[in-house]
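Before a colleague's protein record goes any further, I have to sign it off. Alongside the sequence sits a line of tokens, each denoting a local backbone shape. I want your independent view on whether this chain really folds as the tokens say. Where you disagree with what is written, explain briefly why. This is what I was given:
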Amino acid sequence: MEKEYDKYKLGYHANGRKDIFNERHIYELKDKTEYLDFLLKGTGYTLTNSQRTIPVAGFVHEADITELWSEYKALNERGDRPLKISFNTLMLRIVAECLKAAPILNAHMTYKPFTATGKLEYKEKIEVSMPIIFPNGRMLPLLVHDAGNKNLNELAAYVKDMERRLANTIIEESMFDLSADRLGELIKQGKPLQALCTAIAGVVGPGKLKFPPLKARLAYRKNEKSEDLITKDDIGEGTVCVSDVGSIYSGRGFATTSPVLSPTTAVFAFCRVRDEQRVYKDENGVLQLEYRKILPFTLLFDHKIGGFPDIVPFLNRMDEIIDDPTVIREW
């Protein structure tokens, strides 16, 4: 039975995603004003703050994953998996495995430029922040909790359940709860004026935030269970960001991504796997020319943690998995 607030849930708009997405984009030159909505305000604040405080360095690579791709296809062809394993799920698992070799990339950094002081907090759990595109075309990072301790089946089940919870969610309510927490953090940091101005800007003026009717909001909060929703605890920077650029762009080029999100120290992005002619050595050491599966990826990190030696263990572990992909059979 449809509830009066169901039409405000993300799942209600799923079938019209393409039309809604296209309406957001301007395909002809014309004067138009569009104020930032809740999602853009939240992500804009985080991205701007990160850009100001994090000096980013990066590494880009085109990995030959021909053998890894064969092993990946075999995972699903065996038919013994409860859910199909997507390539995105496999990459989440690979990144989590590589982070275990480079824990400095799974850390939070606190830094004060005025006094040039700071600290690194290493995290035992790998909380992957994964950008998700909503039906209205907006994007928000959602968390895959404890990704380092999940096997492929568990990751696939988690992502599927995330889709279920996302469809049930009025995202403005989750963002409201998250924003309230962040306003509280500003006050704790000794910035009450900024917190007050941010709160006022959200409720007055032409750029004020839009919410469902109060009656619908109250009914939603009363009747829906948190385990069926995306809550404020499922949104955020986590300990590392993994972005699948290939899901929205299939052309050539390297994966490019957003700045490292404060307080994390790294972000990883990969493009769509493509077939390209490459020269390689076969098992006999003979040079061969053939089409190979190529995965372009980018690893960006906060240079304040040190330098490129800090990311080498991550890259070495990635190379080991690509060179001997039979290890994924154990996942």
User: Anything to note?
Assistant: The mean pLDDT is 86. The longest strand covers residues 287-302.
